[in-house]
Amino acid sequence: MEIKFFHVNSKLFKDLSFVIPKGQIVGIYGDNGDKLLRLISLDSDSKGVIYFDGKRKLRRNYYLFRNDISLIERKFINLFNIDNVYEYFILYIRYKKIIVDNVDKKIKGSLRIVGLSEDVLERRISTLTFSELKLLQFALVFISNPKVILLDEPFRGLDLDNRKKIIRIINRLQEKFLKTIVIYSSNPNYLYQYTSYLIVLYQNKVLLEGKTIDLFFERDEFSLYKIKRPDIVDFILLVKDKKNINLPRRYDVRDLIKDIYWNVR
Predict the structure, then answer these.
(1) Helices (H) then strands (E): counts for the chain
(2) Which CATH class is domain 1-68+147-211?
(3) Is 11 helix (H, G, I), strand (E, B) or coil?
(4) Measuring CA to CA, how many Å separate 147 from each of 71, 83, 99, 174?
């Protein structure tokens, strides 16, 4: 699902215009990016023109679009004050008014996608680790099968192995299930590695938007407004500036080390 915002205003943002391209992994970078996620999710009041796949959002059809978007919060929020995982799934399905032919099959399928064992259904939510809670959040979202999934700092607090697991899930959602994924992160290194399109906020306005790799390498606004670039981009640009050596644009530092080796021989 493609989402277009034209001259949208809210309590925090003024005159926002930007695009969430369909079927891409989109990054949001800058102050109050988490608030922009909530604006996209339609959880906060706004005025302006918003299109979902070419259809304009109006008061009478608002509920249709909201069902197509799910926000995975930074931390798990227990909406029902229920501690049993299975019971939580059941209440979540009722709360979202999701029509499911075989509830147990649907729940177990969502767990399988994220790599959680069915045994987790017998556990208490309070006993789950931080990484298990993050995977549970993804499993719950799969129950409603939204077209757009919004992620608020999905990598924060995770070790490398669990971060890789989340990345595999995100890539699978985008590549196999053609979901549109929007990630807010305060870490430009993650956005550089994992997103293809980027929206950069500055003072609650859209400063830049476009292909992630092009923006980080080609736009001077990062230096002008003292917005941090990814570490690997900073290094490549520094080498170009100080040594007049044009290293290839790389995502992996190991590939960059090989480039440096061949350039200094």
Answers:
(1) 11, 10
(2) alpha beta
(3) coil
(4) 11, 29, 16, 10
